[in-house]
Design goal:
This protein is an all-alpha fold and 276 residues long. The protein is built from twelve helices and no strands. 74% of the residues lie in helices and 0% in strands.
């Protein structure tokens, strides 16, 4: 296996070489490659959902190639290399699993989850203390890490909302049970309806829609449901039913544009829902 890692690193270096490399690979930057990295991660998740092991092997390879690509660009700039990436994650895993690689003991998975988050919080606090005294211009700015520190902005919005809420909940900013959360969803929906009724500016309606979605994420979190996964499931269900509705229409010699939306919903959408 190490031979193949070394081979992959040589391939990446050759692709990036100004002397005989691939012009496309040579001109890429961290910023231009980042969207491809995100896309490959989603393709890994899609292969897992489909339980397609052959596809998963291929997609994991594509994702690994993204890591190698970033590491090669960093090596060229003198920042770090692939070995540094591997060493950093190995060090982190040993540090965050003292019950496996040290003398601590962990009773169960739930306890480990708490310990993991505590380790992360300590690491963030240490990093923030190291950086707190010096701003970008060398000035002192002080200030410790807040509860929401480190929740990256590049996450999908639903996922980031859930992470922000989990962080806030850890310091006690959370509803104690489900009913108040449902009440908050209803309250936010009413505010959306009020803005629509008032013919409010699009920005105000967007603001209220954002609040409503944030509350829906909170409800999912309180129920132990991953909101991103729930929406993916909803997307897939809609797609199945819509495609089946189109097929039913075609079987009867129709197109969706032949009907009003009410007629389609009453006849074909209901049939599709009952079938898939």
């Amino acid at each position: 296996m190490p031979d193949n890692i070394a081979r992959l690193l040589r391939i990446m270096a050759k692709l990036r070489s100004p002397d005989g490399g691939c012009p496309w690979d040579v001109e890429q930057t961290f910023e231009t490659i980042a969207p491809h990295t995100i896309e490959e991660a989603y393709e890994v998740a899609d292969a897992i959902r489909k339980r397609d092991m052959e596809a998963l092997k291929e997609e994991l390879g594509d994702l690994l190639f993204q890591v190698v690509f970033h590491a090669q660009m960093a090596r060229e700039s003198g920042a770090f290399d692939f070995d540094g990436v591997a060493r950093a994650i190995a060090d982190k895993m040993e540090r965050r699993h003292p019950h496996v690689f040290g003398d601590e003991s962990i009773a169960d998975a739930a306890t480990q989850t708490v310990a993991w988050e505590e380790h992360k919080a300590r690491e963030r606090a240490t990093r923030d203390r190291e950086n707190a005294d010096n701003g970008p211009d060398g000035s002192k700015h002080g200030g410790g890490a807040g509860a929401l520190e480190g929740v990256i902005t590049g996450l999908p919005a639903l996922t980031r909302a859930a992470k922000l809420q989990k962080r806030a909940a850890r310091v006690g900013f959370d509803w104690p049970d489900i009913p108040p959360v449902i009440g908050k969803v209803r309250e936010e929906l009413a505010e959306v309806e009020a803005e629509i009724a008032a013919d409010a500016a699009p920005g105000r309606i967007k603001d209220e829609i954002g609040d409503l979605l944030f509350c829906c994420v909170n409800l999912a979190r309180k129920l132990g449901i991953d909101p991103e996964d729930a929406l993916r499931h909803g997307n897939a269900k809609f797609e199945r039913r819509f495609r089946r509705m189109e097929a039913l229409l075609a079987e009867d010699g129709h197109k969706i544009t032949d009907f009003s939306v009410d007629d389609v919903l009453d006849q074909y959408w209901t049939r599709a829902k009952n079938e898939v």
